[in-house]
User: Fold these one by one.
Assistant:
Number 1:
Amino acid sequence: MKAIIIDDERLARDELRDLLRAHPEIEIIGEAAHNNEARTLIYQKRPDVIFLDIQMPGADGFTLLESLPPPIPLVVFITAHSQHAPQAFRVDAVDYLLKPVDPNELQTTIRRLIEKINYLQTTHSTDPNKERRLNQEDTIFVRDGDRCWFVPVKKIRLAECVGNYCRIHFDTHHPLILSSLSAFADRLDPRLFICTSRSKIINIQHITSTSINADGVITAKLTDGNIVTFSRRAATLFRRTHCLKPTSAQDSPHQHSHQGQTHELQRLSTKQLGDPNNRII
């Protein structure tokens, strides 16, 4: 796997490079001493993993991760400051190593990296030089104030517009990210996410039920209990990818009366949902 070492101390980079020579599965394709250099190198080289020092002059490693467009490389934090451990684990990095790096701990880290890479390769295959949409196995780095997360895309229930920014909802968190909803939507897989209006996008895997009222308004209930209402245009597109199938009252527990006729919203296959033209934004 291709790796980049990011550390402002040349001696620390040299020591890590020497340790990694014992692991031929790791190919060092570049080094960087600060965030700007690292960002350019990551964009040009597209590494599988970065060995990242947290504490660097100017901007720290978390700031670098926040500035990278998703999907980001796998991350191994390396630092001399143990107080950063809780934050590093909060963002769910592959591993966290303290300086000076212990060869046995590094070996364990390499094993975890290999397991993670193998898993990702079995879930999807793509050209690394071609920008692609995020699938459910990808993660995005999110920073809100002093809190940081690596968020699996499949955990995102809802994304909504907040001015020029976007708020995402996952688990019990709802941080604000430095991206417009439109830009964020452009990176999402339309087989997984649908627009309910110009201001909201929902993950179909987090829909527990859908309904239509007497006025033809469609709503969806999410796994956290949140009710999202579709705009008229979004409802029209939703009907193209979901059947409104008449059914008798005894056929389904999720029925909704509409002008004397009962309707049930039926989800179509993933392939049918994946039409990129079915977008609002």
Number 2:
Amino acid sequence: MVTKGFAALTGPLAAKFGHFTEAFLPALGIAALCTAVSAIQVAAATRPLAVSHAWIRSIGPATPAAGYFTLSNDSARSRVLVGASSPDCGTLMMHQSRNMNGVEAMVMVAQRIVPAHGRIVFAPGGFHLMCQSPSKAVRPGARIPVTLRFSDGRNLRTFFPVRPPTALGGD
């Protein structure tokens, strides 16, 4: 009987293939490990983006509402956020609050790059989503669906809890 590694051959097989088994099994183990690592890398590269700390501040009926969230990208390539939509908003635009010569202003933003293995934050006083013409569903205590759109044609749907005007953050 020939035993080495994971194999145990007996009889005529041991005489004929014993040397092959001794040499082949370590190579087979390395190949299996490389395949597993490659599968993990592919899974990480195609993993969807993750939204956390999502919320929307409602000031009142028919008044624009602002949405905030963190968008994380665990993949090995950058992604480009190009827009958002919600059936509960007439339009949902990306904005950035800026101080321009001492005056606070909101500027429309066409896109935001989410770096590989990085994140972007939409927070009060900075980047945010602006929900124009909100439906009656946009009221404190509700949750509204929001779809984030990316330059590669992919979408990410999530829900934003609606908070009152006095809210300071999500989650």
Number 3:
Amino acid sequence: PPCRTVVEIHSPSMPPRRGTLLTAARLRDAFGTSAFSSASALALGFTSRQLEQAARSGAIVRIRRGLYVVRDDAVERHRGLIRSAIDRLRERGTEAIVIGRSAAVLWGIGDVTPHDVHVMPAATLAVPSTSTHHAGRRCGIHLRKIDIPPDHVARLPDGLHVTTPLRTGVDLAYDLRKAPGSALAALCLAARRDIEVALRCSDARRLARELDDLELTQHRIVELESIPAAAHLRGSRPLLSLVDRVSAAPENPFEALSWAAFALSSLPRPLCQRWVRGASGRWYRVDFLWPESGLIGEADGAVTYSSATDVLAEKRRQADLEAAGYRFVRWLWEDVVPHPHAVLARVGRALAERAVRAPRDPRRESTGRRREVVDIGR
């Protein structure tokens, strides 16, 4: 079949080793399904190396810097359903490819739907158009007869054939094209995941430095523009109109949906995941930044602060940045999904107010520095 060509890549979907599984089991016993900070895990006797290995293997999910959650068992059940279906098709001489929302689940770019994100989709697989298998849905499997270009297919370390992150993002965005915010968020997460795969890097801090290379993101945008035609997607014009708004900076679905809301509005586009300096001289990374107005936007998920210690640390962080002249606007998941109008109005009013001090444009900072920074002049 035309999907035979594959690419070997590192992926967090790779089955974790036994030691890592034990680490995840102990973390699940300690924290359940709640988010936990690295400080909380270290206090219980876990090591930084154990957390890093668990995050790399996908046994735990890094929500943001220093905050994790144990991987949902539903993902593993979905993976088992995919594996079972693929094995049955292989016994009949057919090689199937994981596509659509199932591929998005494996890549970790699927939680941007405007409906219940906790509902696992049917295992969606593609077989060649010349296959004798009948397309349709049955027994939790959605089988489609599609010829996928070889360069749109990757092979995970465990042998599963899956559409590449960019092709997966385009497929997901095409299905969500009537919800432009969700579609754009899917493309942003796909671009970031593709860069992670290319750099063989899942460390958020290192990746943030690499993303300063605009050519990495621009290359993904050019490739995203070419995929709809290669995939023969009809009515993809609305999808193509979103591509120039893609940013690989958002780290998670919440940030991606927030970025999409700003990018699709008439407001100035913010910078995402930027380092700023507080009055104490300490550096902090913020979710969104409007440097000309000295405004910081924070997407506060329900699991951002897992303890009173985290809340206190965040208050000190905000006080330090406010002492340096920055202002804050915060919002929750339910403020953005499905209608972000109230958040956009709050940000618009904050941008209309005059900043206490005039910050420098970080895009004019020296490119020779280790990280791009923003500082408010005193």
